[in-house]
Design a protein that fits this description.
It is built from seven helices and eight strands; from the N terminus they run αβαββαβαβαββαβα. Strand 6 and strand 7 form a beta hairpin. The chain folds into two domains: about 100 residues, Alpha-Beta Plaits, CATH 3.30.70.260; about 80 residues, ACT domain (Alpha-Beta Plaits, 2-Layer Sandwich). The C terminus is likely disordered. It is of the alpha+beta class. Helix 5 packs antiparallel against helix 6. About 30% of the residues lie in helices and about 25% in strands.
Length: about 220
């Protein structure tokens, strides 16, 4: 196929909530915006230095900062998005930060980050036995109750995020306290709902912003 192509978005399955999500993901797909996560020292002036390293000619479109551990040697997680015009420009941002000892990863293609974690702030860090799950819950009355009846009260919910995008299923993020010895039993609870779900406890943005202060390894020079 050659020539110009036009995609028409219309009909009952397209509304302003869904358009917001489409626009957000399209910016990443077109490489007009990139979402990254960095771990910086928790000390006076460190965020200012971080911004300077990103570059005075680079436009921030959003950022979230969370202290992870106070005192000497403590760190803070920064989840941020920037406008970018090329892969080379983005590579330059990442290279400057890493050269200064600031561990940085590109999460533009990570769905959990894009749909949920970039929209979340606050919450206590380092909750024992906390695990993170995405669950597709049908957009109908009583569907959420089905999920909660399967997992509560035997398991504590530690965090949630959901915003309707106008689809048939809502993409919901749940933090749950699940002791290691009960992972199999919890998996059975989730399976009983019939809802599609995924364990995303190893998600990089989640661990940098909400996880315990500890050493971690990630592909590409890791945080």
């Amino acid at each position: 196929m050659s020539g110009n192509v036009v995609a028409i978005t219309s009909g009952a399955n397209m509304n302003f909530d869904r358009l917001r999500v489409v626009s957000q993901l399209a910016d990443g797909g077109l490489k007009q915006e990139a979402t990254l996560v960095s771990s910086i020292p928790e000390s006076n002036g460190s965020f200012k230095r971080f911004v300077e390293l990103v570059g005075k000619d680079v436009n921030f479109t959003e950022f979230k900062y969370r202290q992870r551990a106070a005192g000497p040697g403590g760190t803070a997680g920064v989840l941020f998005s920037v406008q970018t015009s090329s892969d080379e420009e983005l590579a330059g941002v990442t290279a400057r930060l890493r050269a200064a000892g600031i561990e940085t990863e590109n999460l533009t293609s990570d769905a959990t980050t894009q749909i949920h974690l970039r929209n979340m702030t606050g919450g206590a860090a380092a909750i024992p036995d906390e695990r993170l799950y995405t669950v597709e819950i049908p957009e109908r009355a009583g569907a959420l109750d089905t999920f909660l009846e399967a997992v509560s009260p035997q398991y504590a919910i530690t965090m949630t995020h959901y915003r309707s995008d106008g689809g048939k299923e809502g993409q919901v993020l749940f933090g749950m306290r699940v002791p290691p010895g009960e992972l199999e039993a919890f998996a059975a609870c989730l399976a009983s709902t019939g809802y599609a779900h995924k364990d995303v406890t190893d998600n990089l943005a989640f661990n940098v912003l909400f996880g315990p202060e500890r050493e971690r390894t990630a592909a590409g020079g890791g945080i």
